[in-house]
Amino acid sequence: MELGQHSELIKDATDATFEELVLHADKPVVVDFWAAWCGPCRLVAPEMEKLAEKYDGSVQVVKVDVDANPGLQRAFNIMSIPTIAFFAPGKQPMGVVGFRPLEQLETQFGLSAFAKAAETPSTTN
């Protein structure tokens, strides 16, 4: 996949849609603030894909291109990218700057609490 392209599990938020997709979401949201020119952002993209797949249905993953959405960059005081932010309903957002592998993001944001309960081995008769 080219930079900026991602699976259907990940949504793109803009200045216009961020409030609906993230702030009014009924489940936790991980937001990847990135830009096309950002080298480390290329490392983050596959980790976001893994996160979206692993937590499909329980945690939403959203990407924000800071160059195309300067209002969000200002609103959340994004000074360095990549910045990965975690928005849980009713709680203050938290974030980390720079590349982090999936395991570090899970620990940092306490994502294990949102792991799919359906991760049980299938049985065959």
The CATH superfamily bears the name: Glutaredoxin
Q: Give Rg in angstroms.
A: 15 Å
Spatial ordering of strands, largest sheet: 1-3-2-4-5
Mean pLDDT: 88
Q: Give the CATH topology.
A: Glutaredoxin
- Main sheet record: 5 strands, mixed
Approximate strand percentage: 15-25%
Number of strands: 5
Give the ordered list of helices and strands.
EHEHEHEEH
- Structural class comes to alpha/beta
General shape: globular
Number of helices: 4
CATH class: Alpha Beta
Segments where pLDDT lies below 50 for 5+ residues? 117-125
Helicity range: 25-40%
- Oligomerization state: single chain
The termini sit apart by 39 Å
- Counted up, domains total 1
Q: In CATH terms, what is the architecture?
A: 3-Layer(aba) Sandwich
Quick summary:
By secondary structure, the chain is of the alpha/beta class. The chain is built from 4 helices and 5 strands, in the order E-H-E-H-E-H-E-E-H.
Question: Describe it for me?
Answer:
By secondary structure, the chain is of the alpha/beta class. It has one domain: Glutaredoxin. It is 29% helix and 19% strand. Strands 1-3-2-4-5 form a five-stranded mixed beta sheet. Strand 4 and strand 5 form a beta hairpin. It is globular, with a radius of gyration of 15 Å. It starts with 9 loop residues before the first strand and ends in a 16-residue tail after the last helix.
